[in-house]
Amino acid sequence: MCMYVNFFVFFFCFCFCFLVEQFEAKYKEQFPLGNGGCGYVFAGYRKSDSLPVSQTYILIKNESVGTSVSVSLLDWYELENELILVLERPVPCDDLFTYILLNGGALEESEAKVSYSS
């Protein structure tokens, strides 16, 4: 039994390190953009073309959180205790809270209204 456990630990460590190396080979992490109850967000860029990206580290829990986004998912990596999402990061950009503060503390209905068309 011990031999199987040791093999599993070795295999898991090998796979984990391989995924981290794959991620680090493609992307450069620069500075933190923020954090919240689900994880952390860092600014970065894709090394192949210097495209600005955001790297979202989500702690893996046994619960679901629903959300809607307006940026594209470029890549993702599932690690032991976290999920790394690489999203496009338009420059310049602000989060909603900053946008509201910079625009008088409230949004007009026309700004806040989201319309979906097929």
UniProtKB/TrEMBL annotation:
<keyword id="KW-0723">Serine/threonine-protein kinase</keyword>
<dbReference type="InterPro" id="IPR011009">
    <property type="entry name" value="Kinase-like_dom_sf"/>
</dbReference>
<keyword id="KW-0547">Nucleotide-binding</keyword>
<dbReference type="GO" id="GO:0005524">
    <property type="term" value="F:ATP binding"/>
</dbReference>
<keyword id="KW-0067">ATP-binding</keyword>
<dbReference type="GO" id="GO:0007346">
    <property type="term" value="P:regulation of mitotic cell cycle"/>
</dbReference>
<protein>
    <recommendedName>
        <fullName>non-specific serine/threonine protein kinase</fullName>
        <ecNumber>2.7.11.1</ecNumber>
    </recommendedName>
</protein>
<keyword id="KW-0732">Signal</keyword>
<keyword id="KW-0418">Kinase</keyword>
<dbReference type="GO" id="GO:0043066">
    <property type="term" value="P:negative regulation of apoptotic process"/>
</dbReference>
<dbReference type="InterPro" id="IPR051138">
    <property type="entry name" value="PIM_Ser/Thr_kinase"/>
</dbReference>
<dbReference type="GO" id="GO:0005737">
    <property type="term" value="C:cytoplasm"/>
</dbReference>
<dbReference type="GO" id="GO:0004674">
    <property type="term" value="F:protein serine/threonine kinase activity"/>
</dbReference>
<feature type="signal peptide">
    <location>
        <begin position="1"/>
        <end position="25"/>
    </location>
</feature>
<keyword id="KW-0808">Transferase</keyword>
